[in-house]
Design brief:
Blueprint (H helix, E strand, L loop, with lengths): L1 E5 L4 H13 L4 E6 L2 H11 L6 E3 L5 H8 L4 E4 L6 H10 L3 E4 L5 H4 L2 H7 L2 E3 L8 H9 L5 E12 L6 H11 L5 E5 L2 E5 L6 E4 L6 E6 L4 H8 L2 E9 L2 H12 L8 E3 L2 E3 L1 H11 L10 E12 L2 E10 L11 H20 L7 E3 L7 H10 L3 E8 L1
Parallel strand pairs: 1-2, 1-4, 2-3, 4-5, 5-6, 6-17, 7-12
Antiparallel strand pairs: 7-15, 8-9, 10-11, 11-12, 13-14, 15-16, 16-18
Helix pairs in contact: 1-12, 3-4, 7-13, 12-13
């Protein structure tokens, strides 16, 4: 049994690789990354042989196909711009693959081709999307009709955990993204900071205001769970949210550049470069990724609401303090999905979100074994 991890020593890849090495399921683990120096150093810590380290330029389609050849499962932990090339390579190799990037329209368009070859590509298996989808699937179990799925998240991390993480917050709460919720058989557009709602997340996050965000659950859950309404709202730390409101108000997302020392500089690039260097942008007192999902529907003539939420170990527990807590909350769902694919605990082929292929109960059980717990409350309405 062979796992190939692309981007295996990146921010998410490092934790994913560490977990997959430790689980003992795989006869062979191959880690491919452009940072060969870091790869070889970490391979020594993981006790992987040097031949398990492959230098990879993901811009090279031939190198991608060579890296994943013969894999039982391919784990794509590369940055989002590489998602489509990796998916195409996996389809050509008839591979089983999983990633963290939310399902895009361009990726979903490869579904027919993947089905024709028997390939499987599970897209968006992080916290949100990913664990949120599986919580919704678990909450919908046994329901004859799924009236609504209301998803809420609180991503508590520093805004500049990495260069890509800055752009992630810009995408969530910048004015250029398209936000919507699903109702009455269609997507309903929503504006920036629309849909404000107070949600009680588990400690240490607590009560937070969440807003509509541009996530893929509103596209996939109506199709895969036949949900009549789907909403997805989220927030970052209060400090990051205050900053985003100020940046929007002061025009930092407008397309016109500003002049600095006689050179035109894009406003968005200017603030991103600053945040990547500012110590204040890497400092937060609370880290973690809170999820709160409500599934409303009917079973046996009763109208029910199942509320599901997640908790993780306290910062005092080794390996769960600071950035590691947030990283694990995002990476562990990718690990759980990988294990299900490797154990043949999936159904179908094609390109879609996790709820289309993976069973919810063993998925959540794999997370619980690693400290990420799911809780549930059921109300009769």
């Amino acid at each position: 049994m062979k796992a190939v991890i692309l981007g295996g020593v990146g921010a998410m890849g490092t934790h994913t690789t560490s977990e997959l090495v430790a689980c003992g399921l795989f006869d062979q683990i191959v880690v491919a990354d452009i940072d060969i120096g870091k790869l070889r150093r970490l391979a020594g810590e993981w006790k992987l042989p040097l031949e398990a380290c492959i230098p990879l330029d993901a811009n090279n389609a031939g190198a991608l196909r060579a890296a994943i050849a013969g894999a039982t499962v391919v784990v794509n932990a590369l940055p989002k711009p590489f998602t489509l090339p990796v998916a195409r390579a996996c389809i050509e190799e008839r591979a089983r693959a999983i990633d963290l990037s939310s399902l895009s329209a361009e990726l979903r368009a490869l579904d027919d081709e993947a089905r024709a070859t028997g390939a499987l590509y599970v897209s968006g298996c992080g916290a949100s999307s990913g664990l949120t989808n599986m919580l919704a699937k678990h909450g919908a179990r046994g329901l004859e009709t799924v009236e609504a799925v209301d998803i809420n998240f609180a991503s508590f991390r520093a805004i500049a955990l990495s260069p890509a993480s800055v752009q992630g917050v810009f995408w969530e709460f910048g004015p250029g993204s398209q936000r919507a919720y699903y109702a009455e058989g269609a997507l309903q557009p929503a504006g920036l900071f629309d849909g404000a709602r107070e949600v009680d997340f588990a400690a240490p996050i607590g009560r937070q205001t969440v807003y509509y965000v541009p996530h893929s659950e509103v596209h996939t859950l109506p199709r895969n769970l036949h949900a009549g309404r789907v909403t997805i709202r989220g927030t970052f730390t209060p400090k990051s949210m205050r900053l985003m409101r100020s940046l929007v108000e002061f025009g930092f997302f407008e397309p016109q550049p500003v002049q600095i020392a006689g050179q035109n500089v894009a406003r968005r690039d200017l603030i991103a470069a600053y945040l990547a260097q500012a110590p204040e942008a890497r400092d937060e007192p609370v880290w973690g990724y809170g999820l709160h999902v409500e599934v409303t529907g009917e079973a046996g003539g009763q109208r029910l609401r199942r509320t599901l939420w997640t908790t993780w170990p306290p910062a005092s527990q080794p390996g769960w303090s600071g950035p590691a807590a947030w990283t694990k909350c995002v990476a562990l769902p990718l690990v759980a999905g990988t294990l299900l694919l490797a154990r043949d605990q999936y159904a179908g082929c094609g390109v879609d979100a996790p709820e289309a292929f993976l069973p919810a109960e063993p998925f959540l059980a794999a997370l619980a074994e690693r400290g990420l717990q799911t809780h549930e409350q059921i109300e009769v309405l």
